[in-house]
Amino acid sequence: MPIDKRDNAYVVTHALAKDTLSRIRDVETEQVGFRKGLVKLGRICGYEIIDGRMETEYAEIETPLEPTMGERVKGLDNVVIINVLRAATPFVEGLLKAFPRARQGVISASRDEAAGQDEDGSFPITIDYVKLPEIHEEDTVIVADPMLATGSTMCAVLDHVVANSVDPEHLIVLSAVSAPDGLLRVDEEFEQVDLLTVSIDDRLDDDGFIVPGLGDAGDRAFRTT
Ligand SMILES: O=P(O)(O)OC[C@H]1O[C@H](OP(=O)(O)OP(=O)(O)O)[C@H](O)[C@@H]1O
Ligand SMILES: O=c1cc[nH]c(=O)[nH]1
Ligand SMILES: [Mg+2]
């Protein structure tokens, strides 16, 4: 079963997704390996979304030899991918291999870690740039961010995505690693969202980092500290 239901979220259980995540968790995996791993994970997750969330339909096709019935994925042209800068960039590169004709949106969001966490554990989020395509009823919208920790970033992002837009057919929040707190928060604030992740980790540490996690995804992918 490639996608399993766990509490309020769905988990991508493809063996290659688990293998790839284990490789990028490894502290010895340097920038290039880390970034390539995130690209690969995005591609696998894209294929799993097609398999688990989209339908196929029969279509007449003409091979060089004779007409026959084939199957086509419905709605492949109605996919919107939203890239939450910056750590989602390699993840989205992989998703685009599954959805090459996706319309794309970009939201630049970052946790203000210097300001510290509020009493409820959430971070203030700075949003610098928002550019979203028009969202239609028939769309599958995938909001991609490899890390869902406290959920502060994703909730701030979703505020922009749902504002002034119709309810799309699917609104999927896709992450590689999630903390239970973040999944709970997004689920409580946006009940229409389908939460999909490769791993639900144990907990958050005192700095709001996912444990065991993989560290700071943006820093590891962009070689900043
Ligand atoms: O669920 P949260 O507690 O909000 O944490 C998750 C967010 O934190 C990281 O981004 P960061 O702010 O480090 O920015 P970056 O992607 O530019 O590194 C990560 O990429 C998520 O966007
Ligand atoms: O564990 C975490 C939490 C937030 N952002 C990351 O990159 N990693
Ligand atoms: Mg971010």
TrEMBL record:
Activity modulation comment: Allosterically activated by GTP.
Binding site for 5-phospho-alpha-D-ribose 1-diphosphate: 86, 111, 145-153, 216
GO molecular function, one term: GTP binding
Coiled-coil intervals: none
EC number: 2.4.2.9
Binding site for GTP: 36-40
CDD domains: PRTases_typeI
Top-level enzyme category: transferase
Keyword Nucleotide-binding among record annotations: yes
Keywords: Allosteric enzyme, Glycosyltransferase, GTP-binding, Magnesium, Nucleotide-binding, Transferase
GO BP terms: UMP salvage; uracil salvage
Protein name: Uracil phosphoribosyltransferase
Organism of derivation: Halostagnicola larsenii XH-48
Gene: upp
